[in-house]
Amino acid sequence: MCLAVPMQLVEKNGLEGIVELGGVRRKTSLALLADAQVGDHVLVHAGYAIAKVDADEARETLELLAQLGEAAGLP
Amino acid sequence: MKRPERILLGHGSGGRLTQELVKESFLPAFGNPFLAALSDSAILPELPPGRPALTTDAFVVDPPIFPGGDLGYLSVCGTVNDLSVAGARPLWLTWALILEEGAPGELVETCAQGAARAAKEAGVAIVAGDTKVVPLGKGDQIYAVTAGLGVVPPGRETGDHRVKPGDALIVSGPLGDHGATIMGCRHELSGQGLQSDCAPLASLCEAAFESGADIHAMHDPTRGGATVTCHEVAARAGVRIVLEEPALPVRPEVRAVCDLLGLDPLSSPCEGRVLIWVDAGDAERLLAALRAHPFGREAARIGHVEVMREGWSPVSLTTVSGSERPLDLLSGAGLPRIC
Amino acid sequence: MSNLDLYSDPHAVKALLARTSEAALKCTRRVTVMEVCGTHTHAIAAAGIRKNLPANVRLISGPGCPVCVTPVNYLDRAEAVASLPGTVLYTFGDLFRVPSSRGSLEKLRARGGKVEVVYSPRDAVEKAASEPATRAVFLSVGFETTAPTVAAALQEAEEKGVKNFAILPGNKVVPPPLRALASDPGVAVDGFLLPGHVSVITGARCFGFLASEYHLPSAIVGFTPTDVLRGILEIVTQVAEGQAEVTNLYGRVVTQEGNSAAQRLMDRFFQSADATWRGLGTIPASGLELRPEWAHRDASLWEVELPAPREPEGCRCGEVLKGTIEPPQCPLFGSPCTPDEPVGACMVSSEGTCAAWYRHERFKKGALL
To answer: Which residues does chain A have within 8 Å of residue C16's beta carbon, measured at their own beta carbons?
Structure first.
């Protein structure tokens, strides 16, 4: 029930958008995320964008993971 | 080439319409003296030395035209590849069509030309054919059924019985392209790099044999993808196969389609790849030979063979995060999911 | 940011497991963490996490998979609707092989029933629009992640005048079964891994009651190996320290309030209803039905003949879903209930608890960590 993938919004026309991931594009509805802008990364579920991916939060998480890996002193 | 706008029942009845279709569409595409003789059977020259190899295949792909190929091209590649991975040099193919009344003539022509192109690339001849037409609604535009005859040169012996613990498993290129492309077509996913990997692999397989590497077995991972192929080999050879997730070559486009639809690249069919089980000591030599070939540039070592132990999973995957998990056969078709 | 592999980094995974082991040492008894999302079940199995957890940390799968919890009578009704003249069923792939009283949607197709698998409810609206002579019925299952997409599809059908599009409502919501599990003395769960994408819609605040009313530490997490492990670590740490908070560890997409546009759209079309959960029985206010003003799009109101529902005898899915027994303790497990011939809900989904157990736990461990 939760299969959703982060993709980038590359085109927008009202509530219709085109999202892209790994060179693959699909149309998506922005009916649930009307204020998404081209360039935003959005979470896409069943053909609808449902949330924006917060870049700062994502970066913090990745930094945390990097620190965890280093702190464990692994090669 | 004068082609019908739509296929009619008459095109399958053997009379004037059938003859026109054959003469106008198929003969010019396949152009060889065996077929041109138009007799009931193709009388072929004597086989070169070695053991004959015979295969048959049926093709029902939907959509029949897809990025990277069409049902015609696919049908010849698939047949040639079945022979090639068995160690045979492919020689002659048959090509039979079951057309649905109302199928566009353009579609049939595209598929005939695709088959012809594949045959030329593979260096084989389509020497016999047949065309039947079923009433509207009783088919799905175009199906193809083939047979392929080749010869295994003397001294070449591959087979699952030769696969043993310690062997390296190599794949000739990225996994899952064809399956992901077809699923992409069905669910409106598109991308320049999303193309079927459909290709005739006769010369790639010959390059592999000519490298001198001690090749134990070869398979093309079609239906069910690499997972099914590995299960089949593991069962027949009585061994355990472990794949390494970080080593699996998967195109970003294929990864994206799989992520979106909830599919697994390892279960997604390939139509232009070969999996090779080779003596571990010869893995590098084989990789070099594959990478020197246009269809093997991205060849990679993706796993190894272990002794099978009671209660252990026959096929496993070492995940990106470092743990090992069993890689099971899917029950039923891989369908897009939300969960 | 969209490179999911970064969230699977093996060094971070090892570090998280090590920290979880340290935290688990401070726990005096076994800690049971329950996840309630089919996608989590799948992600956890795919990452091979379960067997690498410390011995006293148990990770179990609760009722989180829409496939597993969709009751037999929903599928029976879907099959009955499919047999009405001109009807075409549109469904997510997840439902295709779920057993009904007489077979499944897959088997229905083989008998001539019109069933098509779609990726999005929008696809069903489009197909309905392009085939006005048919009656399109979308099988609407899934939780709060999916319900708004169905609502949006209904909205689109209304706006575009697609009269022949209807749904068979079967959506469920997550908080009520959590309450039921949390208040069930027979269920020994110490904390919940909460569904990240449901939370995207509902907002993190929706789950606060687990801590405030039931003192159950819980974590909202995403679906990569490090996301799941961070959640387990957080819960085990809190259990060791006697704390109970609901922590949002998926801040990159989950906010406190959630997606208000999605919530409004859901509210426009759906209202709360009691719902039957396969294996768990009826849970009040745990489902969504269409509001009366949308009766013209409600296929559950159509007159059909239903077979007497047949719950399989001996099936103990309910207890498996609550985590009170493990799959091998069910008398049907393995024979006759297998992934190829599933009897109950837990074996149906490819990563339902029993299916996952059958396929993964039967084998000896081959962990490299």
So the answer is: 68
C228 touching A, CB under 8 A?
no
* Cβ-proximal residues to B330 (8 Å cutoff; 6+ apart), any chain: B224, B227, B267, C350
Is A50 in Cβ contact with C201 (below 8 Å)? Answer: yes
Q: How far is A2 from chain B (nearest CA, A)?
A: 5
Q: pLDDT tens, C90-134?
A: 999 989 888 888 888 999 999 899 999 999 999 999 999 999 999
Q: Which residues contact A73 (CB under 8 A, 6 or more apart)?
A: none
Radius of gyration of chain B (CA): 21
C308: how many CB neighbours lie within 10 A of its CB? 7
State what percent of residues in chain C have pLDDT above 70: 95
Select from A21, A29, A61 the Cβ nearest to the Cβ of C2: A21
CATH classification (class only), A5-71: mainly beta
Residues 6+ apart with CB under 8 A from B247: B300, B301, B302, B303
Domains in chain B, please, with CATH? 9-152 (3.30.1330.10), 160-326 (3.90.650.10)
- Cα of B225 to nearest chain C Cα, Å: 17
Q: Is 0.85 exceeded by the ipTM?
A: yes
Looking at the domain covering C38-314, what would its CATH class be? alpha beta
For chain C, where do the domains classified as CATH 3.40.50.11740 start and end?
A: 38-314
Give CA separation, C56 vs A61, C31, C51, C245, C367, in Å: 27, 6, 11, 21, 17
